Amino acid sequence: TAAHIINGLIVLSVVSAGMSSIYVTSRTICYLGKTGRAPKFLGITNNNGVPWPAILFCNLFACICFISQGPGGAGTAYTYLINLSGVSTFIVWAVICLTHIQFRRGLKAQGVNINDLPFRAMWYPYGAYFGFAANVFLIFFQGYTTVLPPFNIISFTVSYILIPVFLILFFGYKFWKKTRWVQPSQMDIWSGRRVVGEEENNTKNQTIWSRIKAIII
User: Fold this and answer.
1) Does residue 143 sit in the same domain as residue 174?
2) Do 41 and 11 have their domain in common?
3) For a Cys staple, 38 with which of 26, 32, 49, 172, CB 3.0–4.6 Å?
């Protein structure tokens, strides 16, 4: 029946999303382990290059699904997961905007011509500063309803727990690795830079209609 088909599609989409998430997360964790930003054992791979410790580590977080068996049921668990993922997204984008601001400051301090960049963000610096301010605002105010009467300590914790976690991880890493704050004039903006090849230059010089034609044909 149609209901069974829909249920089957939902199961397939959930499994697909879970597998892709485990793939991306485990490779990220593996990279952090290999570069010393996470415990070294997380960077171990087998002969086929599969980061099995990182995969097992990521799968441990799947146990969070058992909170659906709590007093609030699946609805409460879903709300908690949405809140956590939303706050983490705001934190990530705030860091991205701040990184972009610092990157441009480094370019300016080192006398690099901005026009030499193959890509330049629109509306800089206003867009970057607005994005940073907006995400910081959302980080602190997305859970404001949890402080309204009646106060719920569990909802408040879920809404704001990632803020101290992020700060502990950030400053904990700097303390553990004894890293220092880098001035814009001393930033390493060249390591890992991709050199624009001839093919990319040709693509850059094409008109918009030529690019559309190349995509269609």
Assistant:
1) yes
2) yes
3) 32
Distance from the first to the final alpha carbon of the chain = 39
Q: How far is it, in rounded angstroms, from Cα 26 to Cα 32?
A: 10
CA 8, CA 199: separation in Å to the nearest integer? 43
pTM recorded for the entire structure: 0.70
Query: Average pLDDT of each block of 10 consecutive residues along the chain (217 residues)?
Result: 85 86 90 88 89 90 70 70 83 93 90 82 88 93 83 83 90 87 86 63 63 62
How many beta carbons lie within 10 A of that of residue 26, not counting itself?
A: 21
Please indicate, yes or no, if residue 209 is contained in any of the structural domains: no
Helices then strands, counting H and E runs in the chain, come out as: 8, 0
